[in-house]
């Protein structure tokens, strides 16, 4: 088997394709959640906290200086506001995944609770057994 055929067999294996689909869908889901956090959830939170935009919160270690156009000094700051946004995004994603897994588990539990009808051969054997018991 050539290297190309081995690679094709590996790449087309079901688990690899499933993983690729999961990564693509996960990336798209991440963008949806980021948009939800930035555009829908954070504005009311900012309003409740007095109009604070978390993404702009920072701790300036060294202020920048743009007074001399030839020697501009960049600001050095720790942007903890973006960190707060990232934490909120993570919590929302974790809650969404938790609810999805909980719903899937609930559906699987309901399927397990409903007993499956026994196969026809088992029903037939049970009837034969019952008939033989009746003859004795």
From TrEMBL:
Keyword line: Cell inner membrane, Cell membrane, Ion channel, Ion transport, Membrane, Transmembrane, Transmembrane helix, Transport
SUPFAM superfamilies, per the entry: Gated mechanosensitive channel
Membrane topology designation: Multi-pass membrane protein
Transmembrane segments: 83-101
InterPro entries per record: MS_channel, MSC/AndL, MscL_channel
Pfam families: MscL (PF01741)
Domain of life per record: Bacteria
Subcellular location: Cell inner membrane; Membrane
Major localisation: membrane
Subunit note: Homopentamer.
Family stated for the protein in its record: Belongs to the MscL family.
Function: Channel that opens in response to stretch forces in the membrane lipid bilayer. May participate in the regulation of osmotic pressure changes within the cell.
Annotated protein name in UniProt: Large-conductance mechanosensitive channel
Organism, as annotated: Rhodanobacter terrae
Organism ancestry: Bacteria, Pseudomonadati, Pseudomonadota, Gammaproteobacteria, Lysobacterales
Gene name of this polypeptide: mscL
């Amino acid at each position: 088997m050539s290297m190309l055929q081995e690679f094709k067999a590996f790449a087309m294996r079901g688990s690899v394709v499933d993983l690729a689909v999961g990564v693509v869908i996960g990336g798209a889901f991440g963008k949806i959640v980021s948009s939800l956090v930035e555009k829908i959830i954070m504005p009311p939170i900012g309003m409740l906290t007095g109009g604070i935009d978390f993404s702009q919160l920072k701790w300036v270690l060294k202020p920048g200086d743009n007074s001399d156009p030839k020697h501009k000094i960049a600001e050095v700051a720790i942007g903890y506001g973006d960190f707060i946004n990232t934490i909120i995004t993570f919590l929302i994603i974790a809650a969404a995944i938790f609810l999805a897994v909980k719903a899937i588990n609930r559906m699987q539990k309901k399927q397990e609770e409903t007993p499956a009808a026994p196969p026809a051969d088992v029903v037939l054997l049970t009837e034969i057994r019952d008939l033989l018991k009746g003859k004795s």
